[in-house]
Amino acid sequence: MRALGHRNYRYYFFGQAVSVLGSWVQQVALSWLIYRLTGSVALLGVTTFAALLPMLLVGPLAGAWIDRRDKRRLLILVQGLLGLQAAALSVLTAMDAIGPNLIVAMSATLGLLNAFDAPLRQSQIGVFVANRADLPNALALNAMLFNSGRFLGPPLAGLVLGLTSEAVCFAINAVSFSALAFGVSRIRVPEVPRAVGSMSQVFREGLSYVWAEYPVRMLIFVLATVNLTASSYAVLLPVFAKDVFGGDARMLGWLWGAAGAGAFLGTVFLATRKHMLGLIKVVLGGACISALGLLVFSHNQTLLIALPSMAAVGFGISVCNVGVNMLLQSMAPDHLRGRVVSFFSSTRFGLDAIGGLLAGLLAARTGVQMAMLIEGAVLVLFFIWTLRIFGRLRTEVSLRAGDGH
User: Fold this and answer.
1) Residue 364, Cβ density class (10 Å: 0-12 exposed, 13-18 middle, ≥19 buried)
2) Which CATH architecture has domain 2-183+199-401?
3) What is the rounded CA–CA span in Å between residue 141 and residue 118?
4) What are the residue boundaries of the Major facilitator superfamily (MFS) profile domain, all occurrences included (predicted)?
5) Quick one: pLDDT band at residue 402, thresholds 50, 70, 90?
6) Where along the chain do its domains lie?
């Protein structure tokens, strides 16, 4: 918890805690709304694709754009816009004016805003923590918040859905964005030098760095593969909850909460690490654990096995994603961090979008259980391939991260 010793980071941390919880409540409620209204697993994939695709397409350009501006003020503005989007979704749902086309459009709007929000939040952490040595701990704590939301948000969403409606869940999320906006407004940091040059020049500088540096390029490739396969479980969970386990929104909350609990434990594990030594092994091990979790969960109908399996999936994805983020930000020069984070975010969420779309379409053709089995098998094969590059990747990351190991 040493990063919480920094005043600015504390304001960010507690505001982020409320915001993340609200976002997970909305995500679960939206998935349930779609499947309740349409019964279409393919539409679940399309909606996830619409929400995350802007991260892939706009994210890298957003990183170059925000590096040329006052990130703190821009972060506050984006929170306001996200709150308006959630409020509009709540009103439309309460009025029974929501339908598949409008849901996809609202999800795309959310995705566009998140394309700016994600790199803004991540790139500012290094500014909010004055001591660079505390940056990995701050990143791990930030991921703990996200995964605490995954653990607490879905069961809370299931409870609220059981007592009220999806519209109330969306309204909760709309209010939650004000917490982070308030926290960031209380932060006082020195003026950070902005990137100089045209948008194209700033973007090309970041792209050249990412492509030329072997460890950066390969870490992003690992990140892309894990999120193309394992992270697509979220699209399939509503179908498992209703059709495989014969449950309702509460069952969905338990399954999603189990994945969140595993992810939270993954970030706790990362937060306790004082050095970067061995983090490459942790990242690749996370890919393997998540693959095995998918394989076990895919053809199982016993809740006592399903919950630990989903927790293993969440743990593996978490240590992979957060570990890659810690390594990338530790290696990145200060003036390039915003753009490196934007490439991380666009890969993390953009490939999640494509994976979700493919998983939904695959499940519509082969069945939801077979679709998850295929995802797990592909990830196992990828893990076996990564064993070939492990030695070189570990050596080059150690040199660039400045860990001394």
Assistant:
1) middle
2) Up-down Bundle (1.20)
3) 16
4) 3-394
5) low
6) 2-183+199-401
